[in-house]
Amino acid sequence: MRFREINAGQNAELELAPMIDVVFQLLIFFIVTWQFARFERDMDISVPSAEQAENKDRQAGEIIINVRKDGTIVLNGLVMEHDALLAKLRSISEAYPDQAVILRGSSEADFQSIIDVLDVVKEAGIWNVAFATTKPES
Q: 40-131: which CATH topology?
Protein backbone atom coordinates (compact mmCIF):
# COMPACT_ATOMS: atom_id res chain seq x y z
CA MET A 1 0.00 0.00 0.00
CA ARG A 2 1.50 3.23 -1.13
CA PHE A 3 -1.04 5.87 -0.26
CA ARG A 4 1.46 8.64 0.23
CA GLU A 5 2.90 8.46 -3.25
CA ILE A 6 -0.52 8.81 -4.87
CA ASN A 7 -1.59 11.78 -2.74
CA ALA A 8 1.83 13.43 -2.66
CA GLY A 9 1.58 14.49 -6.32
CA GLN A 10 -1.67 16.42 -5.90
CA ASN A 11 -1.40 20.04 -4.84
CA ALA A 12 -4.25 21.78 -3.11
CA GLU A 13 -5.65 24.53 -5.31
CA LEU A 14 -7.44 27.64 -4.19
CA GLU A 15 -10.83 28.00 -5.84
CA LEU A 16 -11.42 31.66 -6.62
CA ALA A 17 -14.97 31.46 -8.00
CA PRO A 18 -16.67 30.68 -4.63
CA MET A 19 -14.57 33.32 -2.91
CA ILE A 20 -15.58 35.95 -5.46
CA ASP A 21 -19.23 34.95 -5.01
CA VAL A 22 -19.00 35.47 -1.26
CA VAL A 23 -17.30 38.85 -1.67
CA PHE A 24 -20.03 40.02 -4.07
CA GLN A 25 -22.74 38.83 -1.68
CA LEU A 26 -21.15 40.80 1.17
CA LEU A 27 -20.81 43.85 -1.05
CA ILE A 28 -24.49 43.70 -2.04
CA PHE A 29 -25.53 43.24 1.60
CA PHE A 30 -23.60 46.31 2.78
CA ILE A 31 -24.84 48.48 -0.07
CA VAL A 32 -28.48 47.56 0.60
CA THR A 33 -28.22 48.11 4.37
CA TRP A 34 -26.43 51.42 3.84
CA GLN A 35 -29.26 52.57 1.57
CA PHE A 36 -31.86 51.82 4.27
CA ALA A 37 -29.80 53.55 6.95
CA ARG A 38 -29.68 56.74 4.85
CA PHE A 39 -33.47 57.09 4.95
CA GLU A 40 -33.55 57.00 8.74
CA ARG A 41 -31.63 60.21 9.23
CA ASP A 42 -32.82 63.51 7.82
CA MET A 43 -29.94 65.95 8.10
CA ASP A 44 -32.28 68.96 8.28
CA ILE A 45 -33.57 67.80 11.65
CA SER A 46 -31.94 68.45 15.00
CA VAL A 47 -33.93 66.52 17.57
CA PRO A 48 -34.42 68.05 21.02
CA SER A 49 -32.21 67.04 23.90
CA ALA A 50 -33.38 65.38 27.11
CA GLU A 51 -31.55 64.42 30.29
CA GLN A 52 -33.19 60.98 30.39
CA ALA A 53 -32.54 60.14 26.72
CA GLU A 54 -31.61 56.49 26.17
CA ASN A 55 -30.11 54.65 23.24
CA LYS A 56 -32.31 51.58 23.17
CA ASP A 57 -31.93 48.67 20.82
CA ARG A 58 -33.74 49.26 17.58
CA GLN A 59 -36.64 47.03 16.60
CA ALA A 60 -36.64 45.43 13.20
CA GLY A 61 -38.93 47.17 10.74
CA GLU A 62 -39.70 50.26 12.78
CA ILE A 63 -40.86 53.31 10.85
CA ILE A 64 -39.11 56.64 11.28
CA ILE A 65 -41.16 59.75 10.54
CA ASN A 66 -39.21 63.01 10.32
CA VAL A 67 -40.89 66.41 10.85
CA ARG A 68 -38.73 69.27 9.59
CA LYS A 69 -38.71 72.75 11.07
CA ASP A 70 -41.01 74.06 8.32
CA GLY A 71 -43.55 71.31 9.12
CA THR A 72 -42.90 69.02 6.13
CA ILE A 73 -43.21 65.30 6.80
CA VAL A 74 -40.53 62.97 5.48
CA LEU A 75 -40.96 59.19 5.44
CA ASN A 76 -38.24 57.03 3.83
CA GLY A 77 -36.79 60.04 2.06
CA LEU A 78 -40.12 61.04 0.51
CA VAL A 79 -41.96 64.23 1.44
CA MET A 80 -45.56 63.29 2.25
CA GLU A 81 -48.82 65.07 2.97
CA HIS A 82 -51.10 64.08 5.86
CA ASP A 83 -53.49 62.08 3.62
CA ALA A 84 -50.71 60.07 1.97
CA LEU A 85 -49.11 59.41 5.34
CA LEU A 86 -52.42 58.26 6.79
CA ALA A 87 -53.04 55.85 3.89
CA LYS A 88 -49.52 54.40 4.15
CA LEU A 89 -49.68 54.00 7.94
CA ARG A 90 -53.14 52.41 7.78
CA SER A 91 -51.96 49.77 5.33
CA ILE A 92 -48.92 49.05 7.50
CA SER A 93 -51.05 48.95 10.66
CA GLU A 94 -53.44 46.43 9.13
CA ALA A 95 -50.57 44.15 8.15
CA TYR A 96 -48.60 44.61 11.38
CA PRO A 97 -50.79 45.59 14.38
CA ASP A 98 -47.82 46.14 16.74
CA GLN A 99 -45.85 48.31 14.32
CA ALA A 100 -43.30 50.60 16.00
CA VAL A 101 -43.00 54.24 14.92
CA ILE A 102 -40.29 56.71 15.89
CA LEU A 103 -41.24 60.36 15.51
CA ARG A 104 -38.22 62.59 14.90
CA GLY A 105 -39.44 66.16 15.25
CA SER A 106 -37.00 69.00 14.77
CA SER A 107 -36.41 71.10 17.87
CA GLU A 108 -37.19 74.20 15.77
CA ALA A 109 -40.44 72.72 14.39
CA ASP A 110 -43.79 74.13 15.35
CA PHE A 111 -45.30 72.04 18.13
CA GLN A 112 -48.61 71.88 16.28
CA SER A 113 -47.04 70.19 13.24
CA ILE A 114 -45.63 67.42 15.45
CA ILE A 115 -49.01 66.98 17.15
CA ASP A 116 -50.69 66.82 13.72
CA VAL A 117 -48.37 63.95 12.72
CA LEU A 118 -49.04 62.26 16.05
CA ASP A 119 -52.78 62.54 15.35
CA VAL A 120 -52.28 60.90 11.95
CA VAL A 121 -50.31 58.06 13.55
CA LYS A 122 -53.04 57.54 16.16
CA GLU A 123 -55.79 57.70 13.50
CA ALA A 124 -53.96 55.00 11.54
CA GLY A 125 -54.29 52.69 14.57
CA ILE A 126 -50.63 52.65 15.60
CA TRP A 127 -50.10 52.76 19.35
CA ASN A 128 -46.37 51.98 19.60
CA VAL A 129 -44.90 55.50 19.20
CA ALA A 130 -41.61 56.88 20.51
CA PHE A 131 -40.03 60.31 20.24
CA ALA A 132 -36.39 60.66 19.22
CA THR A 133 -34.18 62.73 21.52
CA THR A 134 -30.47 63.19 22.15
CA LYS A 135 -28.47 63.63 25.32
CA PRO A 136 -27.52 67.24 26.01
CA GLU A 137 -23.90 68.16 25.42
CA SER A 138 -21.90 68.71 28.60
A: Nucleotidyltransferase; domain 5 (3.30.420)
